[in-house]
Amino acid sequence: MARARLQDVAEVAGVSMKTVSNVVRGYVHVSPATRAKVQRAIDDLDYRPNESGRSLATGRTGLLALAFSDISIPYYSELARCVSTLARDRGYRVLLEQTDGTLDAERAIVSTSEAGLVDGVLFQPSTLGSSEIARHRSDIPVVLLGEAQAPVSVDHVMIDNVAAAREVTRHLASLGARRIAFLGHERSALSPTSKVRLAGYQEGLEAEGLPLDMGLLVASDAVSSASADRAVTEALEAGLRFDGLVCRDDLAAIGAIHALGAAGVRVPDDVVVSGWDDVAMASFTQPGLTTVRPDMAALASTALGMLEQRIAGFDELGRHVLVGHEVVYRGSAPENLQR
User: Fold this and answer.
1) Whole-number Å distance between alpha carbons of 130 and 113
2) Beta carbons of 144 and 119 less than 8 angstroms apart
3) Which residues of the chain fall below pLDDT 50?
């Protein structure tokens, strides 16, 4: 039996070939009744789109890449889900690329290695600097996410990390904390994320008239709850005392809460703790985790919109857009606390 063609589906469904194409590509502006009729024809004919033919005809693949360091980090998993859902509504599928934070892998993302495979790339670098991104960048459209600096030629979407870290640090101070520690940065070669969040932490201390004590900076070996647990346990055993803890991310905060509990330190009575990202598990810690929640939907939607414009031929200077955030108050550092 000959393979069903797009025009065969159109004839059976009684619609135009363009409408069938819109349904296949997942465009949202098709009525439910028409979509159902076309889908029935697709199922009856066992129609499978000819992707190579479509790519040759349009010069597009209908694929986007989303690249970041480690899919096991909950924030990236949730970002991937959000981007994939919104991209599907725009007629794209998303390929995930894990770089493990290595220079070679990140260079490959912005070089010619993606050419012809995808129409554009959303990329959150963790190692590659702005000048290297500019130097290795190919003609493939790229929009950067996250805290790293972007070249003037590349679009960039992020939240105001400095403002958010300042806000959450001041909140811990408002609850009476005076020795506020910071947990989760790298021991050396600070990542862009750690740099901006430490900067906001310092600004928050200064705004509250509190000194920056380098002894209150608690590094960890990896972005994981286990590493944060070890770092806090070792700090407590070494005699470090603090009554507030700003954590670089929720994984660090979850590890910290576990370590504090094991040491008999009560959260929030003895130490108030904040996290970052509001990942799904943040509301299930004991107590629930106060955390910075980026507007992920706005971040993903804005980045996808900018990427589509680049794919369509927009060729101006890079646009740098801040999307919103909020502090979500839970038991680890509630809005108000009677000590």
Assistant:
1) 19
2) no
3) 52-58
Task: Give the whole-angstrom CA distance, residue 64 versus residue 117.
Answer: 9
**Chain-centroid distance, C-alpha 155:** 16
**Every domain of the chain and the residues it spans:** 6-49, 61-159+295-325, 161-293
Sign of the Cα pseudo-torsion (327, 333, 337, 339, in order): negative
Phi-psi domain of 101 (left: phi exceeds 0; alpha: psi -120 through 50; beta: other): left
Enter the CATH code of domain 161-293: 3.40.50.2300
Length of the chain measured in residues? 339
CA atoms within 13 A on the CB side of 172: 35
The reported pLDDT for the residue numbered 116 is: 60
Of 127, 125, 117, 73, nearest in space to 94 by CA: 117
d(CA 149, CA 168): 23
| Gap between the Cα atoms of 181 and 195, Å rounded | 15
pTM, full prediction: 0.80
Q: Evaluate whether the domain defined by 61-159+295-325 bears CATH number 3.40.50.2300.
A: yes
Alpha-carbon gap, residue 165 to 168, rounded angstroms:
5
**Alpha-carbon gap, residue 145 to 151, rounded angstroms:** 12
| pLDDT tens digits, 166-203 | 999 999 999 999 999 999 999 988 999 999 999 999 99
Among the listed residues 159, 152, 158, the one whose alpha carbon sits nearest the alpha carbon of residue 137: 152
Does domain 6-49 fall under CATH 1.10.260.40? My reply is: yes
The residues near 128 (Cβ < 8 Å, ≥ 6 apart) are 103, 106, 107, 110, 136, 148
Same fold, 6-49 and 161-293: no
Give pLDDT tens digits for 241-284: 999 999 999 999 999 999 999 999 999 999 999 999 999 999 99
How far is 12 from 7, CA to CA, in rounded Å? Answer: 9
Rg of the chain over CA atoms, in angstroms? 24
